[in-house]
Design brief:
By secondary structure, this protein is mainly α. It has 14 helices and no strands. The two termini are 44 Å apart.
């Protein structure tokens, strides 16, 4: 969504006396109707106004100002009821407040308004994945990629990878992460997941490379530190292993190897 403020400005005509002849001037005024004294306001771009309300709603939602957020989403629906953006954004709001059935209706309404839209299918796919409907979600992500004008391929393939990873389908997840990185080589989540998958496969050099790229782009978290520790241990890098242990103990004392691989190494 584009950032920025939108102002609706009523522009008025400025009338000036072009003649010094009082009679002629009075005649001109007599010929003016009341409505012609002012220029009518320019046509309002309701779609643009609706998107501004959506942006405000999302910002309020981030701040947990739920009532204000809801009012902005509802206003957006009033301004542009046939705009698909309005419905999938409102669906996200409803999902956030736990109204999942109504949220799904909003996502589906968005798709009904733009059946081939990549954003619409990507948003619905993400919703389905959060509902643990992984196979359905995967289909929606792939539908999003059928939109030739869709420009979020890296994000969508990453979403698909994260989703099928929960099935779990490791091979397909790796395929999607690789596709994501072809479109954007700096996707942190895709890099970390590829590093983990490569380590699981015993491809330790590849794992180290993906992990190194991730570390350059993103702050460490429990999983990246755990993987870094395992990589350092494998390559005999005692200093790096000790460094990771110190940070893990300080920031993530409850982190376990099962958080990384699903089993103890």
């Amino acid at each position: 969504m584009k950032k920025g403020k939108f102002f609706i400005i009523a522009t008025f005509a400025v009338l000036s006396a072009c003649s010094q002849n009082p009679k002629k001037e009075q005649k001109s005024k007599d010929n003016l109707s009341a409505s012609s004294l002012y220029e009518l306001p320019r046509s309002v771009d309701y779609s643009k106004a609706a998107r501004v309300n959506l942006e405000l709603g999302l910002n309020y939602l981030k701040q947990d100002q739920i009532s204000r957020a809801k009012s902005k989403f509802i206003r957006a629906k009033e301004l542009a009821p046939n705009l698909s953006d309005v419905h999938y954004s409102y669906g996200y709001f409803l999902e956030r407040v736990g109204e999942n059935e109504e949220a799904e209706k909003s996502y589906l309404k968005a798709i009904s308004l733009n059946a081939k839209g990549g954003n619409e299918h990507n948003m619905y796919g993400a919703f389905l994945c959060r509902q643990h409907k992984f196979k359905q979600a995967e289909k929606e992500f792939l539908k999003a990629m059928d939109d030739p004008n869709f420009n979020l391929a890296a994000e969508t393939y990453e979403n698909a990878g994260l989703c099928v990873l929960q099935v779990p389908d490791m091979a397909k997840a790796a395929e999607y992460f690789e596709k994501s990185l072809r479109y954007d080589s700096n996707r942190p989540s895709a890099l970390l997941e590829m590093a983990i998958l490569k380590f699981r496969e015993g491809k330790f050099a590849d794992s180290k490379e993906y992990h190194s790229r991730y570390v350059k782009l993103s702050k460490p978290n429990a999983r990246s530190l755990l993987l870094g520790l395992e990589i350092a241990k494998h390559f005999g890098d005692k200093n790096q292993a000790e460094s990771n242990k110190v940070i893990l103990n300080a920031q993530y004392p409850n982190a376990k190897i099962t958080d990384l691989f699903g089993h103890k190494s």
